[in-house]
Fold this sequence. Notes:
The protein is of the alpha/beta class.
Amino acid sequence: MGRELFLGLLVALVVGIGGCSRAYGEVSQVTMTKIGRVNEEGPYLGIVVPNAFEMNPLLQSPSFMADTELPYLDFSGRRFRIGEVETVKVIIVMTGLSMLNAGVTTQLLLSLFKVSGVVHYGIAGNANPSLQIGDVTIPQYWAHTGLWSWQRYGDGSNDELPLESNGDYTRKFGFLEFSDYNNKTHAKNGKSVENLLNRVWFQPEETFPVNGIPEVRQHAYWVPVDKHYFQVAKKVQDLKLRGCVNSTCLPRTPMVVRVKRGISANVFVDNGAYRGFLNSKFNATPIDMESAAVALVCNQQQKPFIAIRALSDLAGGGSALSNEADIFSSLAAQNAVDALLKFISLLFA
């Protein structure tokens, strides 16, 4: 069903319920009229951002101009800001923390509005010790690493997982062995002692693409960003970024770099061992709590997508800059916005 027909049916439903101004779905006639008016001016580039700390530098940028007639539309707890960035028509929306919020917000954006593609940006933890605070990363792939099959104690890596034969779970993407991180070793042979937590196996998400068969699942683990968007991002690497907050400067000037992989989960990672595991196991650089959710929704909706994440700290410490993360987090947010603006200008050049 096309978006225009979908919105038309919703409007007809709202108007037709005995003159009531609100349908059971809580979509008022006034709101549907505004959505229709916004879409008449589309398509838009969707800009999805986790929180106000990351969004405000964009809203305060001279590159952003709010729509004079309808600067925003509030719906379902979200504020969709309408305007232009670098003379490109955009709708900016803040998700809030976590995979759930990011996924729901992105789905609302794509279901309600005429959107040509999505750019997600913000700050992130860093799993790659070769990069530093303030660097801006643009991964080619994203994965959600918080969906697990937790194996019972006593089973080994060659033992089939429950429901694996049904296609519900898989051992394809590897595991985290908890005993590898025990503090104690066996006194006699020096080997790691067993751990009752055993291991967890990383699982792909079930997806239901709009061009697939309804209720027939597919699976996605590493979700690629749009090829054209990623190619355009190559030119963003020439951008000069800021490296100082007042008189405090980073050891080197931050840079924009395209990287292979980023990962997301509903976990704030402040643990050096787990950070090292994520980097060595998955070749991950930015780690956050939203990007993979945005990627998965865009993948299901067949919309172009890319994420831009500035590094705010080395997750779990271990860097000489660890104690300075608070100082440079605002700089990281600004660098993410600067990279976003450069990307948009190049995308529509």
